[in-house]
Amino acid sequence: MREAAARLPKIAVFGVPSAAGASGPGTERAAFALREAGLLDALRGVGARIVNLSDLSLFPWRADPEHPQARNLALAACAARATADEMPRALAEGFTLLIGGDCSLVAGSVGGATRALGRAVGLVYLDADLDLNTPNTTPSGNLNGMAIAAALGRGAPELAEVVGIPALLPEHVAILGYRAVDPGERKPLLELALTRSADEVRASGGTRAATEALAAIDNDGGPLLVHLDVDVIDASELGAKAPLTPGAGLRWAELEALLVALLRTPRVVVLEVCEFNPALDPDGSSARKLVALVTKAVGARLSD
Description:
Layout: H1 2-6, E1 10-16, H2 30-36, H3 39-45, E2 49-55, H4 73-91, E3 95-100, H5 106-117, E4 122-126, H6 147-151, H7 157-160, E5 173-178, H8 186-189, E6 194-197, H9 198-204, H10 206-216, E7 224-229, H11 252-263, E8 268-274, H12 285-303
Parallel strand pairs: 1-2, 1-3, 3-8, 4-5, 4-7, 5-6, 7-8
Helix pairs in contact: 4-5, 9-10, 10-11, 11-12
């Protein structure tokens, strides 16, 4: 039995308990909550051998009124740097599931993966927001709304240079499922490899949207990181996120088709799940739905 278990495909799992870049506290508890909802056992149930790397240090939210254009910058940069430092250990084990935390860790996760693999890593970003603001354009000052911009090397250097160089090139980024665009995001949006709104993903179907994203990211067929912000899901089906982005998000079935199609390609080496707030999920039902979603997508990958 031990020999059979050793032949199972490995999945490295670690959490980044950070709310430093968020609009308030809560996301720092997501990794714990999803584990409590049965995540690791569910992944074992679809044939994975779990390498549980546990969680990084706590990076809590603070109001930080002294820095209204880039709140908690030093702490968010520490979280991103710690994420980057953990990525080589995780990827050495195999496919990696990273549980945030808020979105501001992206410069660290993509930069750390690039450093670990020695190749440019592309990003497929499933999010209701574009996260392309900088401290000069942000309407909120929250760094999770600047996540992709920082990974592109733009904005506050403490976060944008967390791995020393820009973690991403614009032609290596595809955003799927967005439903909000801030004025300062309209120009950088045009530079990316592919963008599809929630309505466009719904019209084409998740499988086709995934195929388009994979084809559009021009990193010579290299590795990809899939980022899932839970607010890409329609608020009527998952409300454990604050603030909620207005508009019709993706339904569970639509997101499942998209995520399954993405994870089926061996190019995807990391799935990161961000912005889930367990404080807004008192009965644990949203956590269980997320566990089921991630398990279904990972299970489809392992069965191919």
